[in-house]
Amino acid sequence: MRELAITILSSLLFFLILLFSFIGFQNNAKRLPFFHYPSGLIVNIGEENHTHWGNSVLQEDLEKFASISDFSNIDSFPLHIKDHKGEIYEENFKLTTIRKTDVLGVFFSDLFLAFFSLAIAVYFYYSTRDALIFGFFFNFGLIILSNVFVLTFNNSIFLFVLTLYLGSFLQYHLIYRLRGKEINSKWLLPQVLISFIMAMIASQEKYDMLLIERVVLVAHAITVLFGSINIIANVYDIIKSKPQEEALIKRIVLVFSIFLYVALPISILFFDGYPWFFVHRSLFIVTYLLFILSFFYGTYRYTFVPSLVIFTPSIVTLILVSIILGTYIGSIFILDYILPIRYLKDRWVFNLIYLFLVTAYLIPLKLRVKELFDYWFFEQNPKLSEGINKITALLSSPLSMRKTILTINRTVKETVNVSNIIILIPGDQFASTDLKNINFVRISPQSEIWNYFKSTDRVTVTSHLEYGIGLRETLYNFLKGLNVQLAFPAYDSSSNKKNIQAMILIGEKLDKKYFSIGELKFINEVVKISGMLLENYSLLEDEIQKRKIVRDIQTASIVDNTLRLILPSEVKGIDYGYISKPAVGISGDYLDIIPVSQTKMIVLLGDVAGHGLGTGFLVSAIKGIVREQLRNGTSLEGLFREINSFFRARYKGNEFMTLLGGIFDSKENIFKYVNAGHLSLIEMRADGQIKLHSKTQRVLGILETDYHAQELKLLPGTKLFLYSDGITEAFSERDEIFGEETLIEFLHFNAQKTVKEIPTLLETKMTNFRGNREQSDDITFIGLSFTPN
To answer: Which residues cross the membrane (predicted)?
Structure first.
């Protein structure tokens, strides 16, 4: 109803501006007793001049009349008039004085048509956000308005010609829009410029009537050209797509409306104005009123009345208003004519009593009307009642979610004869539930389609989006691709706000007929029940997840205690120090230090995607895999291939891990390592010089990969540092990032410190850097120093 209120208020404001424009611009003056265009063409207004309709006054006579400045002594004026056969006759016309408000009465039908056209334009904009059709009808209203100004004042040639050309070019755009095609906006600017130039020429040469007439004829010719193409294109679409029943009728009505629009230009171009200037003007008004209504009907497409009335509570309001107005008018009629009661003849007494009665009984009356409405359109239909009772019973039945949804889908399809029913939910809802084969469709909660549904609380009708562009076109293609006709929002009743938790998508009726009032009521009730069921299942899933979390915490605690980092015994020539601090209870960073011999040691540092319980289990599993493979004598490259195979076989690309690991050999003075998508290895020599080794290979868990090791020759006093992204991607209170450069500066500054001291110093620096900001990711850092054996 908001769009309807805006339409009425906007149109009323336009009408008031129009009224004041007439009163302000017009002067009380003597003039000829008929209305004519600057070319001399007499229009069909005023029955007393019926014999002159469609004829033209000679320009010489009009110029003489316009040159008269004082009409005080002139009551009549002779004119030479040429009829439609080309014959000229002379007649003496008595002048008349027209007051300011007289024009409003003479052109009332024209002004109403302009007002009605604007109302349609405003409604299209607020209900469909269609700027093109809004502009088309707004321009059409301006054409009619400027035509009135030309006939009354002969001084609005610029606006008249401008709107004529804009209207003709808008017909070009309608060729695309009415067939659901994208509009090439690059043509808009030259069309506006051409219209502006032609209007300027006409206004500057307003005394050259022959030139103005030709300019106007060109505008009519363009209108006829694009209108004809529009008609042919839509007829071709009818033949090609073969729409059925109501859809076919609406397509034909749309073609008919376009023909009505170009009827006047065709008559001017090819039939010298017949019949428009030789018959009563009411034909013109009725024709173009019919054009507006048929265009509106033909473009609004499907379920017109239900979309405006049934999808909102306004039908009950309309009935109540009708009852209140009817009883008031009937009471007045009875008091005045049938049973004149003296005490109630005073209107203020009766109005006070009536107001009191309406206030006292409005709510009970509203409830009664709603009950009657539900009874006649819904409860009286046994098929609908049986269907809703069957679905309502599911609320208390101990069925699984899959079984319940399948039952609802089947019942709805059988009851209202639709092709399908789909439940559209955001991707983060029921994340751990298998929703295959039960007509659920997931959509990204950040997508523009879901944001559109969240921002509107109305039922979306697919066919009403057919002529839209941008988001409306995307939404139309999405719903049409699913064969959906109606999209109902299902709300979360546990929240005070209207939060949409799902969209119930209803397919097209198999018989291609309208949804009846009862069927729409049935669907609305099903949507409410579906919303309650979804909410119950959501609460159930939350409870299950909470119980799983409690169980996982207990399990993870045991795992963490049994598979925690076991510090190796001393390895000759190698010293190390580390920190490992999880963001939550269980770390998703994997750190392992394993001695292989008295001179060899394996160091592994990895990062499983995410952090928390799930990644904690993965870290524990990987620790077990590593130790098992090392016991079997697997090489470093083979170890990476085994971990990669584990991820791919278990998680099929849904989980992945970065890993940097290598073997220190103090006897050979080398560090042999593999980097699978992890951060750079930092080498710091004894003189404090730092070098980054950033060459990496594919992340673990994505594709089958043959990993190859790199070798790094070690010099005495060399330190190596491995770290996770929790170090470099830490943020301060001012959203400053710690970064790799800060880490390198820290290592430079502490180059003389031992590898056992550096991790502790780094932890202190990071704590000071974050300030009061919480740690957002797992932090792991290990430093190793090498001394020749």
So the answer is: 6-25, 103-126, 132-150, 157-175, 215-236, 248-271, 283-303, 315-339, 348-365
